[in-house]
Amino acid sequence: MPRDERGSSTAAEERRLMRGTNRLDIPLELRRTIALRSAYDADAFGRLSERIARFLGTGRFLVYMTATIVFWVVWNIFAPESVRFDEYPFIFLTLALSLQASYAAPLILLAQNRQESRDRVQYERDRDVDARTRADMEFLAREVASLRMAVGEVATRDFLRSELRSLLADLETREDDRV
After folding, report:
1. How much is the pLDDT for 156?
2. Given a cut of 80, is residue 26 above it in pLDDT?
3. Tell me: the pLDDT tens digits for 28-63?
């Protein structure tokens, strides 16, 4: 065992000895991993999948796809045999379309899931706004009811006029009785 001038073991040897004790006051040595971890941004991939799904649902995509397939079939039927790349059963075309469909379906599902999450958040916001609006309406209804009750206790102009007319009539009858 290597020792320094004072007769103590080296730091590496001490770490080796301490490693077996599982002490919490000593940091573990960093382990190197063989596999590299990639930085995966799920949100960026989701945005890309939404763009692709949006494009797959357009008429432009259908026109491009139809034109490509028509060109493919016409080329492989009418072109000279030396330049044809996919003979009549069009196996390569079938493979390409199957590959496109196998990638399109999960991308569309991912875009739908993201839209569902956005819809759920929007639904919760709408529900909160609805609850606040309902509470405000109930408050305003109580206020209007209290105002109606208060107005019911207040004398109106017509009521005062009728009371003043009846008092005036009483005064006039009293004056006539005195004379």
Report:
1. 78
2. no
3. 666 666 666 667 777 888 888 899 999 998 999 999
91-115 per-residue burial string, b: 16 or more CB within 10 A, e: under 16:
eebeeeeeeeeeeeeebbebbeebe
φ, ψ of residue 155 in degrees (nearest 5):
-75, 135
Give the residue from 104, 117, 119 showing the smallest Cα distance to 51: 104
What gap in Å lies between CA 22 and CA 12, rounded to an integer?
16
Q: What is the CA radius of gyration of the chain?
A: 44
User: Token pair for residue 75?
Assistant: 């080329």
pLDDT at 1 (0 to 100): 47
- Do the Cβ atoms of 49 and 110 come closer than 8 Å? yes
Q: Where are the alpha helices (DSSP H) in 33-156?
A: 42-56, 59-78, 91-153
Q: How far apart are CA 126 and CA 123, in angstroms?
A: 5
Q: Hey, what are 44's tokens? A: 């960026």
